[in-house]
Amino acid sequence: MSENASSESIAAANSPLVSALTAPPESVPPPQKKPLTQSMGFKLARYTLTKFASIMVAVVIGIYLTVLIANMGGYVDQILRGQIREQVSISLGMDPEVRQLSQAEREKLIEDTIAIEVRRLGLDQPFLIRSFRFLGRALTLNLGRAQFMSSDSGSRLVSNIILERLPPTLLFMATSNLLLFFISLFFALYLSRNYGSLLDKMVIGLSPISAAPAWFYGIFLILIFAAVLGWLPFGGMVAAPPPPELIPRLLSIGRHLILPVAAWLISGFFGSVYGWRTFFLIFSMEDYVELARAKGLSSREVERKYILRPTLPNIITSFALMLITLWQGAIIAETIFNWPGLGRLLFQAIGLFDTAVIVGSNVIYAYLLAFTVFFLDFIYALVDPRVRVGSGGAHK
């Protein structure tokens, strides 16, 4: 009986199931796990492609809406046909050879000439087809030729017209917006340290001044400093004729720049300061700021580490959006001051129904805005450790 029991126990010990169950843990292979870097890389790539695709869809929709609005849904084609008929009739009517023709021959010649001009401009095709062709050219930055406008050198290419007007706009808008941004930012930070002071109350009281646009203040500045006092020029970018030497020309440009920049600063300063000051005050009342002050940190350290650091994404967003507005220019302000920039160019193009120039200016702005919004998420992840790209905007 004992021999049978011992033999059964030996057989059980030699069975594969028992040996697998009684094997040491080290012999069992651990489960395979995906590397963390591969998982994060896949999420980042998927997020990047998804965001880029969504932004490009928005760009396409925005540009096509711009094409439709610039053409007023096709009504501009009728205006252009009327202008073509008027110009052809006037030009042929003044030709002495055409006057010798009979009435029927003159009308036939006019109609044939109009048909040639309509085909040349593509107006013989349905507007819906032309709008999609216009969209395709705009997306590939093939801005085409202007219908009525031209550059100072005589070129009708929209790209040349825009590039010629770009430096004056960058000079005006960069000077105005950079001064407005940094002055209002630091002044708002100063007011947040001196909450409730007389200067703080003055800024709050004057903040409604920013409701009026820059051109509104520009009119008063021109009347006072140009018409009455005669200290500064009425408008333009440089004196006529422009000084031949470099230094006098730069001084002339600076003198012409004073009134536009002053109008821009008056229009935006108080509202911008009030907004930033309120924003800094909200963050300065957080519990972690009070805890930092209780620890004995200096006001400079508290301001730099616990107030400015959390607001850095908002500051970067405002600065980035301000930079891309440098391209667009100020339509009415540039017109008031006779400033030869993109804003005045767009105003003239709207008055002439020059669709190519209108769409070309807005296409480049749309691309700048799209890429700015695209890269802002990655910049947030660099400046704010709570942000994780690809996590759906959640803070971790």
What's the structural blueprint in terms of helices and strands?
Elements: H1 2-14, H2 16-21, H3 36-70, H4 75-93, H5 96-99, H6 103-120, H7 127-139, H8 158-193, H9 198-206, H10 214-228, H11 246-284, H12 287-294, H13 299-328, H14 331-336, H15 342-352, H16 355-383
- Arithmetic mean pLDDT: 78
If helices are DSSP runs of H or I spanning 4 or more residues, what is the number of helices?
A: 16
Find the count of extended strands (DSSP E, 2+ residues). Answer: 0
What is the name of the CATH topology of the largest domain? MetI-like fold
Q: Helical proportion?
A: over 70%
| Total domain units | 2
**Which homologous superfamily in CATH is the superfamily of the largest domain?**
MetI-like
The N- and C-terminal alpha carbons lie at a distance of: 69 Å
Named at the architecture level, the CATH assignment of the largest domain is Orthogonal Bundle
Gyration radius (Cα, Å) is: 34 Å
Q: Which sheet architecture does the biggest sheet show?
A: none
Secondary structural class: mainly alpha
Question: Low-confidence parts lasting 5 or more residues at pLDDT below 50?
Answer: 1-21
- Tell me the quaternary state: single chain
Can you tell me the CATH class of the largest domain?
A: Mainly Alpha
What percentage of amino acids are in beta strands? under 5%
H/E series: HHHHHHHHHHHHHHHH
Q: Overall 3D geometry?
A: globular
Outline the structure in words.
This protein has 396 residues and is mainly alpha-helical. The chain folds into two domains: 58-139, no CATH class; 165-383, Orthogonal Bundle (MetI-like fold), CATH 1.10.3720. Helix content is 73%, strand content 0%. The chain contains 16 helices and no strands. The protein has helices at residues 2-14, 16-21, 36-70, 75-93, 96-99, 103-120, 127-139, 158-193, 198-206, 214-228, 246-284, 287-294, 299-328, 331-336, 342-352, 355-383. Helix 3 runs antiparallel to helix 16 (355-383) and helix 8 (158-193) packs across helix 11 (246-284). The protein is globular and about 100 Å long. It starts with a helix and ends in a 13-residue tail after the last helix. The model is unreliable at 1-21 (pLDDT under 50).
